[in-house]
Design goal:
- The chain is α+β, with helices and mostly antiparallel strands.
- It has one domain: Aminopeptidase, CATH 3.40.630.
- It is built from four helices and seven strands; from the N terminus they run βααβββαβαββ.
- Strands 1-2-3-4-5-7-6 form a seven-stranded mixed sheet, sandwiched between helices.
- β4, α3 and β5 form a beta-alpha-beta unit.
- α1 runs antiparallel to α2 and α3 packs across α4.
- The mean pLDDT is 93.
Length: 172
């Protein structure tokens, strides 16, 4: 896993991030509405979204995007319901990198960055039946906390979204 560089995405990377996710991300399990995903990634330019990417000799191999959120407050422990938490939005790798651990590696790196930012509750979602995403999330320490019917976003298979969470210890 050392033949590539990992770095924070910058404004100049947005077009390549969009190209990678729309070429290598689509499958029956992923909800990738083009306008919404493109707008999300444009959030990098505004500072509302961050992404960690892996590249080799200038070729984008994968990325994980994330942001601060309050969208998962209902899952937060009572004393922390009002606190900001993190949401990992997109995780994609180039098809040629599938199964090599790059996604899990990037996800673990993002978790470390979020901990450094003081965000100790991190949420991520996937299609209930997406085994590849489930494995990547498990390897990074995420646990399933709920699955619910979500036919608009998940028209295939069970039609359900699974919410996963990683809670890191807090000082004090």
């Amino acid at each position: 896993m050392s033949d590539f560089e990992i770095r924070q995405a910058q404004d100049r990377d947005i077009d390549n991030l969009c190209a990678l996710i729309f070429e290598h991300g689509p499958n029956p399990w992923n909800h990738l509405p083009q306008d919404e995903v493109a707008a999300h990634l444009q959030g990098i330019a505004a500072g509302a979204v961050q992404a960690l990417l892996a590249e080799r000799e200038g070729e984008l191999l994968g990325f994980v995007s994330y942001r601060q959120s309050r969208d998962f407050a209902r899952y937060q422990p009572a004393p922390r319901r009002a606190q900001v938490h993190a949401y990992i939005c997109e995780a994609v790798t180039h098809r040629d990198m599938a199964g090599q651990g790059l996604g899990s590696h990037l996800l673990r790196q993002v978790v470390s960055l979020l901990a450094e930012q003081g965000l100790h509750d991190i949420y991520i979602e996937r299609h209930e039946e997406n085994a590849a995403s489930a494995g990547m999330m498990r390897k990074a320490g995420f646990v399933e906390i709920e699955s619910y019917a979500d036919p608009d976003r998940r028209p295939h298979g069970s039609g359900r979204t699974t919410v996963c969470c990683l809670r890191m210890p807090q000082d004090g």
